[in-house]
Amino acid sequence: MTTTISVEGMSCGHCEQTVEEALRDVAGVTDATADRKAEQASVAGDTDAAALVQAVEDAGYTAHA
Description:
Elements: E1 2-8, H1 13-24, E2 29-35, E3 40-45, H2 49-58, E4 62-64
Antiparallel strand pairs: 1-3, 1-4, 2-3
């Protein structure tokens, strides 16, 4: 299953990497890709969207499911 969430505040490649790492640390996530230009992240795996949003916000960005 793939889930896409909106992510605000990414301004560079390092930001994308930070968001991807935060998402990959969520239980059930098998892969994550962030795109600063599209202001979103795509997450593969079986997990709750609220957990994804929380992980991104804990990393310092604004997220919406």
